[in-house]
C-alpha cells in the first residue's frame, strides 16, 4: 500500500533528522529562548529581507491559526475567510472556542477576492444596526488553498490594499507555503509576503519537518505580547529548540524550497497522467495536491494499492479524490501509479 | 412621524404597567425566587399543559439565546441555524463569544427543514475526519422567523423527529411567539411546542411587556443547573419579580394572545393595502412583520411620515423594507398609512 | 416580616415609576439611541463635569462588569480585584467565562491598596517566566465595597497613580455608588471619579431604579466600539429608553443622592442601635450595609420578624449577618427593629 | 555552564531518538490513528492493569491540562486546585481562556487535602446564593507537585473518596509522574492511579521524550468525544505517530521508570550535599526537584557555573532556588556540583 492521502505520512527530511540527532545532547534553555530558535528566526528574517520581523515557532497549524487570530482580535471582532478555509471547516471550531466568529465568504477554487472583502466591509459600515453584527477585523487566506490553488501577485496586492483601506489585518496560512512558492506558476516570494501580510506562517509540518510552523509578524500591533498568547494557547513547546533546529535545517541551505520543488514536480507528472488517462481535474493547480474526478469503480480498484483521500461526490458514478505528493514522495511510487493509471485508462 | 420599524417602539401594555405599579411597593426576595415568578411560571406551565416543565424568566433575547445555547452545549458542539437566524447575524457573535460555532444552513423564507438537518448530520457522521469538525448538537429555529414566516405542525414534528434521531436538542426562539400563535394560518399551540421542543421561549419584550422572555424547558438534561447559567450570562435580574409580574399580567387572562391577534389583524390589513397599491411582498406571511418591495422614490416619500426599516435591495430602483405592527399599534395609524398607500398608488 | 436582607427588595422610587408611566405610550427608536437616553447621558456628563465622557446604560451589575472587562482586555490579560470582590465570588465565573482570570488580592474590609497593586505588577515584571502568567491590565474596585466600606480620596488617587504607572485601567463598580457618595464620611464626588477612573458605573438597580446601571467611560481607548460589546454580552435592552427614562428621573433633580442619604441615615441609626444593644460590627462603615455580630440564638429570634442575610460564622455561638437599608426603607420599620434590638439586649 | 534549572534542558533519551530515527521513513496515517499510537496505548493500558482505559497522546502540558478540563466541564463549573497549581499560576490563564474558573485552595508544600475539598463543597452546597458562585466539578492535583512533593496512598484515596461523594472528577497532572513513581518514599503505582483518578496523564516531555503527554481516562463520561477536544485545543499532532513511537520506547522495556530512578537518585545525592553544606530545604521531598535555601552571595557565585531557577525570597539575605535533575543528568555534573558545594560550605 502506497499512501498519497496527505503530505504528512512520513517523518521528516533526513537532513532535519540529522540535525535533531546531532543537537540532541545539547543543554539549552526552554520555551524557544535558545540559540537555535534565535538563529532560525534570523535565517527566516533574512529570507524575508526584513530584519524587523518578529518570528515565532509553534507546533501545529490549528494551534497557530487560533493563536494568531485570538491574539489579534478583540471580542467583538471576527475573521473573514473562504467558506472552505481550514479555520472554517476543519479545526473543530477552534476559532469560535476562542470567542470569534468566522465570517465565511463564497470561494472560487478555495480563494477569496479583495472585492468580496470590500463588499462585506461596506455592508457592515452601512448597516443601520452594524453594532449588532460582528465587526470584521482580519482576513484569513491560505496559500496554497485547501484546493491547491495559489494567489497571484496582483490578487494578494489587492487583498493587502483592501485590508489597509478598511483597517483589517491580513493573515496568510502557509501550512503548505513551500509547495506554493515552488509551483510552476507561482509569482510570490517571502519578501513580498512579508510586505503584503500583517502576519503569515511558513509551514514545516507538511514541508520536511517533523512538526512546526514559523509565524512571521510584520505589523507592530501584532508583535506585542505575542509570546503570552503562544503559551496560553498551548503552543509554547518546553523544548522549543526542537523547532529552531528544524527550521535551521530547512532554511540554512535552501532545503525548504528544494524539497518543495520535488513534490510539485511529481505532482505535475501525476496530474498529467490522470488527465491523459481521461480523468479531469476538479480544480486546476500546480502545487502538491491533485484532485482528479474518477469513476467510483476505478477508485475502488485503485484503493487496493494506493491511499488517497475522499474529496466530494461529483455525480452518481463519479467522485473527486485527493492525491498528495510531498518532499518524501519517492519517484518510483509516482511512476508506479502513473503506470497503473495508464493500465486503468485502457481497461475503461 | 409614526414608527412602524419594529415591535418595540412603545413601553408596555397598560395592564402590564398597572400590575407593575400596583406591586411596586411590595417587598420580595430577589433573583426570581419570589411568588410572582412562581405564579407566572405556574400559569405558563398550565398554558403548556405540562406541570413538569421548568420555566425561567430572562430579560432579553440575545441573553436568552446565549444562555440556553451555552448551557446546553459542550465546547466541541455547535448549533444548527438558518443563515438568516438571529443568532447567526444579529447578536454580535454572542454565541461564538460563548465558544460555539453556528452551523448555518440555507433558508427558505427564514425557515430550515428536517431534511437539511438530517443531511448535515449524515455528512458529519460519514466524514472520515469528523472529529476535525464541530459536532452538531442543537437545532435553533425562530417562530415566527426573521421573515415573519411560521412553521407548520408537520414541519415542526419533522424537526422534532430528526433531532431525536440524531441526538440533537431542538430550541425554538419565540421572541415574537405571540404573533406566530395568533396568525391566521397558525397550526401550533403551546402544548404542542412543549412536546416538540427541548426548550423554547415565549417572548415578552415584543409582545406587551416592557422586557422579558420566559424560557420553557422540557428536556431534563437542560433543566439541571440552568440558574447558574442565567447568572453567569448576566440574565438574573436582581428584582426578578418584575419579570414574574409582567408574565402574570400576560398570562392570567389570555392577554398575550389577545394583543397578538390585534397586531396580526392590523398587519393583514396593511399587507393587503400594500398589495392593492401594487407593492408585492418579498415574503408571504400572516404575522406582524410586513416586507413590501417598493420603488426607492416611493420609499423616500413615505419615509417623511413613517418609520420603517430597510431590509434589502431588490433591483436598481426597488428595495424591500419592513413594517411592523405590534400590540401597541393604533388602528388610526394603520388607517392613515393605508390611505397614504392608496394615494401613492394612484400617483405612481 | 420586614425584609432587610438586601437593597433590591422593592420596585422603584415613585418618581421613577411616574416617569415610566408617563412615557409609556411614547414611540421611540430602540437600543438606547432614543432621546431619553441622550438626555440622561447628558445629565450624567454634567454631574461629572466633563462633556467628553461616554455614557452607556446597561441592565444589571454582572452584565456590566462582564461587558466592561471583556471589552477592555485582550485574551492574555487579567483583572486585579479583592478576594471578596463581586466579580471574584458572586458572578458564577462570568469574567472567566469571557476568558479572563481574576487576579485576587487579599482585602482589608473589602478594599485593596495601591501598594498591593504595585507589588503584583512588580512581581509580574520581574518574573523570569512572566509570559507564562496572566498580564495584569485592569484594577477592579467596588465603592462601596461588598463590606460597605468606601475609599478615601487619597486611596483612590493612589490607585489612579499606580494604574497610570503600570498601564492598567482603573474600573470602579458603583452598584451602590449613591450609598457611598451620601455616606457621612465620604470624600468622593462624581467629577473626582471621572478623573480617577478609566471607567466606572453608577448603579441604579440598588438606588431607586427598577434596574439599570450607567457606565461612564473617560478613557478614549475604552470608548471605542463599546456598543458592540453591550450587544454581544446581552446588555442592549430593546426598549433602551426605559434605562434613559429612569436615569433622567434619578439625575434631573438630585434624586439619586437624596434617596441615598435617606438610606445611609437610617443605616447609621440601625448601626448605633446594634452597638448599643451590645452587638459589635464585623466591619465599620457608614453606608447602607450593616454587619452586626450576634449570638446565634438572638439571630434565630430576630429571624422570625425580620429578613437579613447570613454573612459568616464568627465563633461557635456567633455569626455576622447583613442588614441593608435602601431608598425604600421606611423609618417605621427601622424604628421597630431598633425597639426590638433594645428589648433583645435587655433580655440577654 | 551546567544547567540544572529544569528537566527539559536536553533532547530525548537515546533509545527514544533511535526509535524516531528508525521509524522516520515509515508511511502512516495521521492524527494518532496509526499503529504506533495503538501499540503505545496498549502498553500503557497494560502497565495500568486495565484494558478499558482510553489513552490519548498530546504534545505538551498546558495543552493537556486545558483540553482535559475544557472537555470535562460545563460552562458554569470550575476546577479546584492548589494556589500553587500549575494551572493556577503558570499557564497564562489558559483555563480561564477556555471559560472556567480555577478555585484555588491554600496548599501545604504544593498539596491539597480531601478535607479542604469537602469544606469548599459544603460551603457551596449551603450557600444561599450558590447559583451565584462557580460550581466545583473537578479537582486538579499534580504529582509530583510544583514543590516536588508526592501524595501518599492514603491521601490520594481520600481525594478519590471526597470526589466521589460530591460528584467531582479527580484529575492528576503527571507532567513529572515518573519522578514521583520512582521516588524513595513513593507509595503509588499506575494501576492505583487508574483506579483513583477519573483522568491523569503520564508526562513524557520531562521524562525522556522530546515531547508528549499520555492522557489516561478511566471515567466513561470523560472518554466520550475526547478527540474532538484534542483537535479543538490544538493538540492533535498531524504526525501523531511521533507520540506513539516515543511512548513505545518509554514503555516497552520499563525505560520510563528506569530513567526516572536515575534522576531521583542523583537528586537525593544533591539534596544531601546541600544540607551537609548547611543549606536547608524549603520543602522536603525525594523527587527530582531540589529547593535549597541559600545566601544570596553564595547563589551569585554558584550562578557563574551552574544554571538553576529562582523560587522565592526567604529573608533579606537568603533565597530559595530550584535545581532539577532529570533522566539526562550526568553523574559527573552532579559530582562536580557536590564538590563545589563542599568548597562553598567551607568558605562560608
Automatic annotation (TrEMBL), chains A, B, C, D:
Gene Ontology molecular function: lyase activity
InterPro entries associated with the record: ArAA_b-elim_lyase/Thr_aldolase, PyrdxlP-dep_Trfase, PyrdxlP-dep_Trfase_major, PyrdxlP-dep_Trfase_small
SUPFAM superfamilies: PLP-dependent transferases
Keyword Nucleus: no
Pfam entry (one): Beta_elim_lyase
Stretches assigned to the Aromatic amino acid beta-eliminating lyase/threonine aldolase domain: 19-293
GO biological process, one term: amino acid metabolic process
Alphabetic keyword roster: Pyridoxal phosphate
Similarity comment text for this entry: Belongs to the threonine aldolase family.
Name used for this protein in its record: Low specificity L-threonine aldolase
Organism from which the protein derives: Candidatus Eisenbergiella merdavium
Lineage of source species: Bacteria, Bacillati, Bacillota, Clostridia, Lachnospirales
